[in-house]
Amino acid sequence: GENGTLSREDFQRIPELAINPLGDRIINAFFPEGEDQVNFRGFMRTLAHFRPIEDNEKNKDPTASEPLNSRSNKLLFAFKLYDLDRDNKISRDELLQVLRMMVGVNISDEQLGSIADRTIQEADQNGDNSISFNEFIKVGNLYFVYLET
Amino acid sequence: MEDFWVVVLAGLKVWVYLIVALLMVPAMFGFSLGISETYMKILVKTLEWATLRIQTVNKEQHIIESSSSNGLIQRDDGSMEEELGELRRSRPKPPVGGDFTLSDCFYFYRRGIEDIVEDEVTQRFSSEELVSWNLLTRTNNDFQYISLKLTMVWGLGVFIRYCILAPLRITLASIGLTWLVIGTTAVGFLPNWRLKYWLSDWVHVMCYRICARGLSCTIHYYNKENRPRKGGICVANHTSPIDIVILCNDGCYAMVGQSHGGLMGVLQRAMARSCPHIWFERADMKDRHLVAKRLTDHVNDNTKLPILIFPEGTCINNTSVMMFKKGSFEIGGTIYPVAIKYDPQFGDAFWNSAKYNMVSYLLRMMTSWAIVCNVWYLPAMTQQEGEDAVQFANRVKSAIAHRGGLVDLSWDGGLKRAKVKDMFKEEQQKMYSSMVVGSEEDNSSHSD
């Protein structure tokens, strides 16, 4: 663009991102609801999720709102990448969609379905057959350190 | 009023005589009077002084310096298997071979964001960022006002570059090119004696030397014993059209390329008269067999000059070597690799064809300090038993990258303009699926 904003096409010109199976989802995360352009501010807000947590932040004013790159906000970011309809639950369909993006055509529908079912079974605690944010955190907390770049 | 014009004419005469004596004659006969060496020494001293000034002021003001060597972010460069293994570490391994966890996607997200911040490919299509400013406005990315002295030196530099050096260089370049056209056409009229080839070589080299002086090039050639010989193919990494001038200063090559109209066309036809070059019509280039046949014919004739080819197919910014197209490696001649590395401190030689057209690019070249480059001739390589063209191309590419201190990438230079193929995405997906499903043996031993 070179007009101060980025469009989806600009992101897709990065080859490593274009071959990333979840590349489109990542690109979507930068764009606010329904818009096709992101300015520098919006770009930085999304990237700010990935800053490493600094020690001195723990001593900051506890009443201030949580910084964007706190653990739970990072997990929330990942949760939203699954939860497309933003109903705060990852349904079986949404999980299947992400799975399908990651494996392409190499796994059959039934196999994929059983993998999705198994995952939901393991994580689901209140029996509603979908994964809420709290259930996601329990799984995610073991791996949060991995989001720190 | 007339006196004024007389003075101007006299001045011009002196100017021309000086140019001829001090620059053209040495260029024609290949010796040097030491003027450019002195210029380079002064330049180096000035730039060192400027760097020191900037660094001292930076320290005083505690401006954070970025280290360009490490890149913008820290990355864990593990493979997909290693990193997914790490992610799944603390979970118990299920009885069936493969596995999937919700957190697998974190790997992809992280790689994606890392690539958005800094990726290997798009940075190769714009000029290299300098560690320290070299007193040219065009490389001034985030260097700030430092001191009056530095600004004055910069101002002096601007004056010297634009008012003294640039006209000089433009004059030289035009003389060089005109001479090339006249000389090669003249040689072309001679019948095919030995003398013709010798004269043609001499005319070519001489004119390229004049052009090189016209750009203030300082070139160091290493390993001249490996210089390309007749009947071979010379491959080099490509940074700009000036590469041709640089290589032809030290030997004659047959060139391959598209025939243009206009000024380039005149040059091409003139050169083709004195010794055989291979110029294609645009329509022919699409026909790979025709291209390959002409190249093979040329290579098999041992009296013909070595062919100069740039297998990357496009200009890269001289920090890396991108994928070599396999076409030139399928012909079967001896390959003479050459590595060209420019020193960015004195002038950025990269031609960003999206940003600048040829004329503004040449003007930029002529208003830089100088073009300094190193040329390494590597030992000849031939295709080995059981090696296909792609592997051979990659082997040559690594050798060139290693010698020139460039990063060896396997991305295609064509990505400058085209999108990446879906095939690569599918490869990634395939790799991941095999991790989810597990290996064939595991699956067959546990039935559902």
UniProtKB/TrEMBL annotation, chain A:
GO terms for biological process: protein transport. Keywords: Calcium, Cell membrane, Cytoplasm, Lipoprotein, Membrane, Metal-binding, Myristate, Nucleus, Phosphoprotein, Protein transport, Repeat, Transport. It comes from Hucho hucho. CDD domains: EFh. One of its GO terms (molecular function) is calcium ion binding. Its main location: membrane. Belongs to the calcineurin regulatory subunit family. CHP subfamily. It comes from the Eukaryota. It is found in: Cell membrane; Cytoplasm; Nucleus. This is Calcineurin-like EF-hand protein 1. SMART domains: EFh (SM00054). GO terms for cellular component: cytoplasm; nucleus; plasma membrane. Residues 70-105, 111-146 form the EF-hand domain.
UniProtKB/TrEMBL annotation, chain B:
It comes from the Eukaryota. The chain crosses the membrane at residues 14-35, 170-190. SMART domains: PlsC. It comes from Hucho hucho. One of its GO terms (biological process) is triglyceride biosynthetic process. InterPro entries: LPCAT1-like, Plipid/glycerol_acylTrfase. Residues 232-343 form the Phospholipid/glycerol acyltransferase domain. It holds the Pfam family Acyltransferase. Belongs to the 1-acyl-sn-glycerol-3-phosphate acyltransferase family. It is found in: Endoplasmic reticulum membrane. GO terms for cellular component: endoplasmic reticulum membrane. It is a multi-pass membrane protein. Keywords: Acyltransferase, Endoplasmic reticulum, Lipid biosynthesis, Lipid metabolism, Membrane, Phospholipid biosynthesis, Phospholipid metabolism, Transferase, Transmembrane, Transmembrane helix. Pathway: Phospholipid metabolism; CDP-diacylglycerol biosynthesis; CDP-diacylglycerol from sn-glycerol 3-phosphate: step 1/3; Glycerolipid metabolism; triacylglycerol biosynthesis; Lipid metabolism. SUPFAM superfamilies: Glycerol-3-phosphate (1)-acyltransferase (SSF69593). Its main location: endoplasmic reticulum. GO terms for molecular function: glycerol-3-phosphate O-acyltransferase activity. This is Phospholipid/glycerol acyltransferase domain-containing protein.
